[in-house]
Amino acid sequence: MPPPVPPKSNAGKTWGIVGAIAGVVVIGGIASAVALSGGGGGGGGTGGTAGPKYRVTVPQTLADGSYTLSKDISQQAGTSVPHDGTNEHGITAVGGQYGSGTKSLVMVGLYGTIDNPRTTVEHAIRGMKDDAQTDVAVPEKEFTPSGGGGPLTCGVDVRQEAGQKITMAFCVWADASTSVNVAQTDTADLSKDPRSVDLQEFADTAGKIRREVTKPLDTASA
Question: HSE (CB half, 13 Å, CA atoms) of 209?
Answer without folding.
Answer: 33
